[in-house]
Amino acid sequence: MKPYNQLSAEELKVLHAELLEKYNEYKSRGLNLDMSRGKPAPSQLDLCMELLDVIGADGEYTTKNGTDIRNYGVLDGITEAKELFAPLLGVKPENVFVGGSSSLTLMYDAVCRAYTHGAYGSERPWCKEEKLKFLCPAPGYDRHFRITEHFGFELVTIPMVEGGPDMDAVEEAVKDPAVKGIWCVPKYSNPLGTTYSDETVKRMAALKPAAKDFRIFWDNAYAIHDLYEDKQDVLLDIMQECEKNGTQDMVYIFASTSKVTFPGAGVAVMGMSDNNMALMKKHAGVQAIGYDKINQLRHVKYFGSYDGMLEHMKKLGKALQPKFETVKNTLDKELKGLEIGRWNDPMGGYFVAFDSMDGCAKRIVALCSEAGVKMTGAGATFPYGKDPHDSNIRIAPSYPPVDELKTAMELFCLCVKLASVEKLMA
Amino acid sequence: MKPYNQLSAEELKVLHAELLEKYNEYKSRGLNLDMSRGKPAPSQLDLCMELLDVIGADGEYTTKNGTDIRNYGVLDGITEAKELFAPLLGVKPENVFVGGSSSLTLMYDAVCRAYTHGAYGSERPWCKEEKLKFLCPAPGYDRHFRITEHFGFELVTIPMVEGGPDMDAVEEAVKDPAVKGIWCVPKYSNPLGTTYSDETVKRMAALKPAAKDFRIFWDNAYAIHDLYEDKQDVLLDIMQECEKNGTQDMVYIFASTSKVTFPGAGVAVMGMSDNNMALMKKHAGVQAIGYDKINQLRHVKYFGSYDGMLEHMKKLGKALQPKFETVKNTLDKELKGLEIGRWNDPMGGYFVAFDSMDGCAKRIVALCSEAGVKMTGAGATFPYGKDPHDSNIRIAPSYPPVDELKTAMELFCLCVKLASVEKLMA
Fold first, then answer.
1. pTM, entire model
2. What is the CATH number of domain A4-45+311-425?
């Protein structure tokens, strides 16, 4: 098949009729499939059920420091958990804060604390600033953008380019003292699957923002979420780079086991400098006495070590491979050469990003929805939910079983074709 | 022995020498005992270890609504948990927010959300108000006071009287529009053990504060924490009273299983009106996707029902009885008739409050500490940590075993005597 933009008006008309017939056939099947969020599949969660048996009624409940994990205390996490997660964050164990089960909450709270009381180095709480701005590499993660929107920040779009956010744009933007931070998903980024290049990480760590309390929110959500053992992206360690530049206070590093063990019932962690840690403990100590230490020790005992966690991730990678391959193969088979879309081929993470012809994304998602396939809302990957090109669509293949995913992807491709033909005919 | 204030100077001198000798004897024993915080004893925690076995690798993980508790979602808690905790809070299940493991965090976050974005009915976020005040019935809970101090509220002391906070003072204080709320521990209050009288609850629910977004923080931490089956305080249901007055939006009700199952690894809940719930969900949805549903279902299955939870609390009451009786008996034996202190005899909760002669509390706590017995800091039960009479001391008998507690209490009484004699001799 030749590229759609080389078809004549008559050919488009015929094609449109064909596609519409197929589409109506799908619609009549009453599908109910979901590719909207990066949710692990039940079969994936089954792979760590033994986690729930690690600490039982006759189990151990004392840490090596003698802390009774069943009782109050230990605000920043038990030593064993700090040690387990330190290599995940790339910081020393004493620079790990283990808090609750959600890294999103850790991020919200970090923004919120700076807003109400200021971060380390702030001249005043952020709520006392006249104007607040936050850098949002886009396409990116909608929940990140929503946090800063919620706190009244102006969201400044930074284009994602090869190797991460456009660092020229970032370096320029941070000259504005109203710019207080940047959202980053540095490995297998949501939704592009991009891993920041060494140069990007180095330039990030070397930033000299006008705001002394500027913070890089380094959400390493997919730090160890590789699909393959033999081909993996490697991310430079940001804290090491910051140390070379004396900018360690500029970065907050986040991770969690939401997509390692159980979403919502995992362990969330934050890595930061000594200065940031001291201030965090002071503030967090007003908010909490301590987090769930039983769940912390549960994770420590289940994995045994960081290497144990990496071994576990190989199993999850294997479980996700056929899903990502189904997405890739269906896109290749159905759309290659038609010049109506581009997509990536990530080595890890939870998403495949698809770029349609300009002005087609909303229509594609609506067509999918009408036929029973739920996608992430078009535009969700941009600040304020507005994609200037109306072209980016996030595909989340992790949840449905492969056979359902195949059907959903076939329908998706059909909707891409249909929306593209409509556009070309208009 | 006659009251100390009737002793002659000579008698006091002799007594002082005797007491000092005994005190030095205690000091030489190198004690290391802790009556400082309301921490459950390990033997108490042992009583619910089976909780940890309820959901294992081969356990159920689907709610009656079909939710997979291992995966993302359900911001405000699984239905089963809402139903379990509704009677604890005295609200309908749909008015229960199940969030994390710490009610302190729920309280902090409720203050914080009102500070950054306003509560339901706020004209503006609290951080945009010129002046903020909060009512602090005292003696009260230091961590409550610290939250509002942290957010820059002026802490207004409300005296605790028979039957709860002095409601004349409260009704007068809320005429000031800067007054945004009040901290309450309505049953077996920390540290007095007071349960609010029906009249107090009714007057609380009938408040007409100048601030339209005034909130009663009703921390029912000891709602079901009775010591005895045959003598228990009964607290009127605040939400029912509020409904009679049309003031349902004025109250946030808090509880947790920190002192029911495991502190830090329990379940915290918040009860509130429809309006408050709708706003809370909107804001909390930016901060979190959902809380630990596995731990929620663990608690649901372990207790079976609210009645099951009450049955469990009988066991805990029995475990705590000998400790409270040790405190009471030692105080009675050592101090009765000396007129150098008053103490209460609570039917539940976690504390016994002791009032020394004015100006002696700090000295007593210091003497205890020097001899190896750690007490809550004198003054901690008052706003800003300043007890105007320097007389209130919080005794927390739950943690030490009975024999250690007996020793600690004997030393405590000795220190009370010594500090009182010093005071009378000065």
1. 0.97
2. 3.90.1150.10
